[in-house]
Amino acid sequence: MKWIYRDQSQGQKVLNFMLLTAFLALVVPYLIGVTNGHHTPWLPMISELDKATPEGTLWSAGLSLAGVISIPIWIKLYNKWDGQLRSSNAEPKWFWFNLLFVIMAQVATVSFIWTVNLPYHEYPIPHGVTAALYFYLTLLLGTIAILVVRKIDNYPKDIIKMRLA
């Protein structure tokens, strides 16, 4: 495993661990649920993965852990962009957008954790509201992130153009 992490910063390692945790928290409960006959093998509803045990426990705990791990990642990204914006002599409004980004990221993370811990079959309205808030904020976060990084000098803007095209 050492060769995987050789050239990565501590933040990248935490991000990789968070992504692996989230991936396993989705795949393992799905496989357990399908083999136990609790879920359809083709296109299951993701909100029903926490309906039965043990997959529901793994799903909620794993995704909650991934959400908690993401909190310092958002803060680290905010601090990184703040320093880059300051060295780029960006307009003050972009500092506010960067702050808005990290606040929205924290609210999205809390919404995500609530979503995975409010079972759809028991609490359909709170689950739906927190899920909608999470997905909406995630889309908005991506937009604000693109706008913020475009104001940073020496940021690889060609990557952003390729993703937008």
From TrEMBL:
Domain CWH43-like N-terminal: 17-160
Transmembrane parts of this sequence: 14-36, 56-75, 95-116, 128-149
InterPro entries: CWH43_N
Keywords (A to Z) from UniProt: Membrane, Transmembrane, Transmembrane helix
Name under which the protein is recorded: CWH43-like N-terminal domain-containing protein
